[in-house]
Amino acid sequence: MSKFIEHQNWRYATKKFDSSKKITPEDLNTLKEAIRLSSSSYGLQPYKVIIVDDPEVRAKIQPAAWGQSQIVDASHLFIFANMVNVEDADIDTYIANIAETRGIPVENIQGYGDFMKSKITTLPNDDQNIWTSKQTYLALGNLLNAAAELKIDATPMEGFEPEKVNEILGLAQKGLNASLIATVGYRHEEDATQHNKKVRKSKEELFIHL
């Protein structure tokens, strides 16, 4: 933790990436593992993370992201796509994974699976979509923190049109919805925003002790 706060002060939402600098395969695997290990409600991880490398696909996405240059200039483009409808089968698969990973009979945790179904699959579709979308923010947080530890720049983005991104990537057919975008790479030396002081609320204004 001795460097964590220092790295958080170092990071910022990069506006201009150096397109000539690429993340190494080793660092990319670390970022993917950080996302994989993210917390989520029930541990269910009701989302997929699409990493778009194809320059042509990224060029198609750029107009749907308000023309932002980070989409095409960053080393990697991460799209967090939430499941729009969690079904009983999805929970059954998760329960089976728990049983296999921990070496316990499925029957021992079936009650937990039934409890999850009673709380999730019974929700109206719109409520499910909101809930699964929130889960992607937890995964994004791990990506941002891991990137900062590696001194890799990352920019979270809500400024895009999900419907168009869904269409470009064929996400609707997969039962997915583009919830968040993160561009990851290395800041360009000409990105003036890197020199701006970080603006945050003071501790006195932010925290309430009861």
From TrEMBL:
Keywords: Flavoprotein, FMN, NAD, NADP, Oxidoreductase. InterPro entries: NfsB-like, Nitroreductase, Nitroreductase-like, Nitroreductase/BluB. GO terms for molecular function: oxidoreductase activity, acting on other nitrogenous compounds as donors, with NAD or NADP as acceptor. GO terms for cellular component: cytosol. Residues 10-186 form the Nitroreductase domain. Its cofactor is FMN. Pfam families: Nitroreductase. One of its GO terms (biological process) is 2,4,6-trinitrotoluene catabolic process. It comes from the Bacteria. Belongs to the nitroreductase family. This is NAD(P)H-dependent oxidoreductase. It comes from Flavobacterium humi.
